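Let us practice reading a record.
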Amino acid sequence: MIAEPAAEGLDAAWASLRRQIDRSQQFWLGIVCCESRTAADSLRDRAELHSHSRGHPFKRVEFVDLQDLGRILIHFEDAPGPGGCTWVSTEDWGILDPRAAKACWTQALYRLNQKRDSLQSTLGGLVLAGPAWLNELASTEASDLWSVRSLVVYAKAKPSGL
């Protein structure tokens, strides 16, 4: 089991994410672990605005139905290449049924892991946003993909300084 680092406020998490977006012109993998979907949405909105302000494409891939995560790869056919960013999250944060959420994310991680080399050659940034357990799940179920991660952020719901 991987020990989770202490969660940082949204402002500090955003600073780390923004730095990654600014510096990367090739494939990078970010795992954003948040206490709530609201926190992840805030980071996603900041990342999207920042990407657009720099003239870089940004794609949101949000799954309403967790079962659809198994078909994650079809969403990368028109995903932004180097310099761009694709943000993947789910509407269901797994609060009601964490085991089902973990099973669906596991299927998605398997597929991403299998296509890791292809994704690395065609995508820009790939952000997987989910609950705190997502990083550990990725490390155990998709270790090849997890090993190329560039950023892991654990964010609290409240902005720092509040």
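A brief commentary: The CA atoms of residues 138 and 153 lie 14 Å apart.
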